Amino acid sequence: MNNLKSLIILIFAFTVSCSKKEEKSPSYHKGDMTILTDESFKSVTEALADGYMINYPDTKIKVVTKKEDLGFLDLLNDKARIAVMSKELSPEEIKAYEEQADLKFLPAKFAADAVVFVVPKNSERTSITMQEITQGMLSDEKNFIFDGANSSNLNFVAQKLKKLPKDLKYSIIPGSTNVIEELNKYPNKIGVVGLNTISRPYDKNAEKLRELIKILPVETNGELYTADFQGLREMKYPFTRVLYFLTNEGNFNIASGFIRYSCTQLGQMIVQKEGLQPYNIYRREVQMR
Questions:
Q1: What is the Cα gyration radius of the chain?
Q2: Where would one find the signal peptide in this protein (predicted)?
Q3: What gap in Å lies between CA 129 and CA 161, rounded to an integer?
């Protein structure tokens, strides 16, 4: 009888142990997650998060806006599992990521976005040159208005000009939407915002913002380049940037599932509907004879 009791207790303990392991096992289709994103990529990030939650109703994804540099630090400090990035990390930053996350640096690229230069709709200016941008970012006149320090837009322009953000001179109006809405107060200045802020074709807020401004083509080597699908797809527009995900998740949980979803055809279709260039699929034209 004692042996029978011992066997029952052992089986019960084993069953409880297994059930606990199942509860703790990773799952890509159940649970909560927060995504950190710079304001410039918020629209496409929210659209992808909504798509994922529709496909996996037991998941809850919260999109939190944070300046790109600060979001990266939160990822390193394990305050979030996933962040949207655009800037090229320095060797020191890559080393810190690999040491803190205990993972190889493998950015999951999912979209081509851009930094665009905008002026009020009634401005006589129709384009801007790379030379004007370079000289203007070093001028005490501070004619370029950014959405803030530590922002993805400032980081990217600095990298493009092979400068550090602290070496550049610029004005600030906090928030990309505010930059666009208040730009007409400063007729001689040029706003610098992320394309995704205004790229969603049928969004009423994006439409209102587009009505206030015009996007300046950028001239380089005598050629004008625009931030349209072709300019992004062929990377000819000088300020094209690639958006990617970074995660500190070592197993296949929600972050990994979300990344995989965003890079599949369904996720890439969402990227395209956002007015951005999908990174992993391209429209193919077939001619029939």
A1: 23
A2: none
A3: 13
Q: What is the pLDDT of residues 170-227, one digit of tens each?
A: 999 999 999 999 999 998 999 999 999 999 998 999 999 999 999 999 999 999 999 9
pLDDT of the residue at 27: 76
Residue 259 and residue 121: Cα distance in Å, rounded? 38
The CATH number of whichever domain residue 43 belongs to comes to 3.40.190.10
Question: Do 232 and 128 belong to one domain?
Answer: yes
- The structure tokens 């930053």 sit at 93
C-alpha closest to that of 41 among 62, 66, 69: 66
Question: Residue 23 falls within a domain, yes or no?
Answer: no
pLDDT for residue 102: 93
On whether the CB atoms of residues 34 and 78 are closer than 8 A, the answer is: no
286 within domain boundaries: no
Q: Are 23 and 15 in contact (CB under 8 A)?
A: no
Range of 50's domain?
A: 31-111+242-278
- Identify the pLDDT of residue 218: 98
Number of domains in the chain: 2
